[in-house]
Amino acid sequence: MKKLICLAGALLTAATLPLVSHAHRAWIVPAATVLSSEDPWVTFDAAVSNDIFHTDHAPLRLDGVAAIAPDGSQVQLQNTSTGKYRSTFDLNLKQKGTYKVTSFSSGLRARWETEEGERRGWPGRGEQATAEGFAKEVPKKAKNLEVSFGSRRLETFVTAGTPDTKVFQPTNQGLELVPVTHPNDLFAGEKAEFKFLIDGKPAVGAKVEVVPGGMRYRNQQANITAEADKNGSVSITWPQAGLYWMSVSYEDDKAQKPAKKRIGSYVATFEVLPE
After folding, report:
1. At a CB cut-off of 8 Å and minimum separation 6, what does 95 contact?
2. Phi first, then psi: what are they for 198, rounded to 5°?
3. CB 262 within 8 A of CB 253
4. Using CB atoms within 10 A of its CB, is residue 183 exposed (0-12), middle (13-18) or buried (19+)?
5. Residues sharing a CB contact under 8 Å with residue 219, sequence separation 6 or more, in sequence order
6. Do 69 and 101 meet the contact criterion of CB atoms below 8 Å apart?
7. In the chain, which residues have pLDDT < 50?
8. 105 within 8 A of 61, measured Cβ to Cβ
9. What is the pLDDT of residue 116?
10. What is the CATH number of domain 2-106+148-167+249-272?
11. Domain segments of the chain: what residues?
12. In the prediction, which pLDDT does 23 show?
């Protein structure tokens, strides 16, 4: 158990996704998703916002963001900068194929109530989850004690030349996407199929929400909802071209002790091209 909690703490320390309310959405957006030049470069924006793809709340910290090349190697982020409301960086796509830009974190969390009815939580923001900390800070018989093990993953994808699927090899950690339809091969009016795994197994019943960009210019969110089938798969038909934000959530009771709940969160950004 100590090994599990220490690993969780290390991952939490590297997390780039802040704990925000449902109204705040994290995202990474490339300026283009498919490039064909001889020496392609892509600029990315990364933020946490109220309105999707509109920088109005906070920047996404780049400490835990990694770019994975088609051969599985990690590519250095170039020209990184973090401002008041967004972070930016560039990526040089020297290899042909599909790249994954990703951020992943996981760890234990505990919530309970005091005898006076006040809510308490552990670990606090910025604190490391350790076996000693859990034993010291979390009362074993606390009122309404909830202990969970959660993971968060944030991704987007870009391709130099022809799309390939090498970067989609599952890590079997947390909630992740194994696409049937390539994320850089999406077109308006066409159906795309995505498969989701939780720790390497189908994320049956995962809740999926897809929201098109430009929501601040609409009276309604125009979101699309779906639920993963017995294979962890969902199908999405894109109503029009543009940028889309996808959020997937999963929860079950198959966590390792001392956690009683396993929670997974997955967020990705896609570009849908005209027919």
Report:
1. 69, 70, 71, 160
2. -120, 115
3. yes
4. buried
5. none
6. no
7. 1-22
8. no
9. 84
10. 2.60.40.1930
11. 2-106+148-167+249-272
12. 63
pLDDT tens for each residue of 242-252 = 999 999 999 99
Q: Give per-residue pLDDT as tens, 218-247.
A: 988 899 999 999 999 999 999 999 999 999
Structure tokens at 242: 């543009």
- Location of structure tokens 């019943």: 205
Q: Are 89 and 99 in contact (CB under 8 A)?
A: no
Q: What pLDDT is stored for residue 11 in this prediction?
A: 39
User: pTM score, two decimals?
Assistant: 0.87
Paired tokens of 132: 């000693």
